[in-house]
């Protein structure tokens, strides 16, 4: 029976080529636009999730105010990381990240000014997920004057040479030993680096014990993400203990008087996966996105899909009257209402399925243009977007059933005698 429905549907598609083209093309364009927007939304929501410990990584920020001067930034003091690891059992690991400027790196005749050079602790690789192509993450940055390059930088400076063990000069002042090569940072990371050099090269900076001087990005890994509030409270207890002597020495007042005067000095924690969309603080490493944009684009995608479905339904309904005589003849030779409904539902589901297939082709064709406009590097494959499959199947069912329900019941209710006489048709009373 289904084969018969399918053959009839294909014959009708050939018979009404203009209608078929307009309906399928309109729906496929709508679905393609919807998919592209959803890929953008998914990409925004997926920032930093490539890190294995993403749900347990937090960044420490600071709110401070004094004499109507306020700061809400994502920096913290030098001793924060090692103190938390030593004194807070809930903290599994911590690392510091800092940028000391834009060095000029030299290797033989290769000379480039670089903007994405960061100095980090050797524990950086205990916090973030970094794929090493060469070198050992346990020893890559455990001594001064060591540096790790990304794959693209290794090729840029060393070409086909093996960079391990080579020296690369920084600003004609310091030679770094290349101890590792890692994969380039994924595009959906809240910060990107080309070089990671050892913080041990700057002992006077990293050993500074000043709790009111904030120049570092500090990331911590919690053993249990549910303990975030407890850890935050402990951070500020430790902060008070270490910062109060400085406050007393500089301002001549106690910590309590400092707070009572309306001043503020408070560290807080941000989930790593919230940084890109929910952090618009001072001293961000890179500009972040905006969760509001994600909401707006999600609504636009839904709106486009609804409009495409309505257009599809309207065209299907408008054509229903043309097939009134076909229905009348089918009823005359014995087709019942259930069979007629199944026939029309099969046709609209087939049109929907074809529209979705064409939409997928359109997505592949226009994705490079979309990436250029959006400044993204989104790739679309079913392997990487498994969750898209049920959405596409749902699109077929929603469009097909919604477009086929009214015409199917409407046409199936015609009285054959009335239609064949050429009289007005309508629902059977």
Description:
- By secondary structure, the chain is an alpha+beta fold.
- The protein has two domains: 177 residues, no CATH class; 225 residues, no CATH class.
- Helix content is 48%, strand content 19%.
- Strands 1, 2, 3, 4, 5, 6, 7, 8, 9, 10, 11, 12, 13 and 14 form a 14-stranded mixed beta sheet that branches.
- The longest helix has 38 residues.
- The chain is elongated and about 100 Å long.
- It starts with a helix and ends in a 9-residue tail after the last helix.
- The mean pLDDT is 86.
Number of strands: 14
| Radius of gyration of CA atoms, rounded to a whole number | 32 Å
Can you tell me the overall shape?
elongated
- Report the mean per-residue pLDDT as an integer: 86
Spatial separation of the terminal alpha carbons: 29 Å
Please specify the SSE layout and strand pairing.
Elements: H1 2-15, H2 17-45, E1 57-66, E2 69-73, E3 76-77, H3 80-87, E4 91-98, E5 104-107, E6 110-113, E7 117-120, H4 124-127, E8 132-135, E9 146-150, H5 151-158, E10 167-170, E11 174-182, E12 195-198, H6 203-206, E13 214-222, H7 228-251, H8 255-260, E14 264-271, H9 275-278, H10 291-318, H11 324-332, H12 337-374, H13 388-412, H14 416-420
Parallel strand pairs: 7-12, 9-11
Antiparallel strand pairs: 1-2, 1-13, 1-14, 3-13, 4-7, 4-13, 5-6, 5-10, 8-11, 9-12, 10-11
Helix pairs in contact: 1-12, 2-10, 2-12, 10-13, 12-13
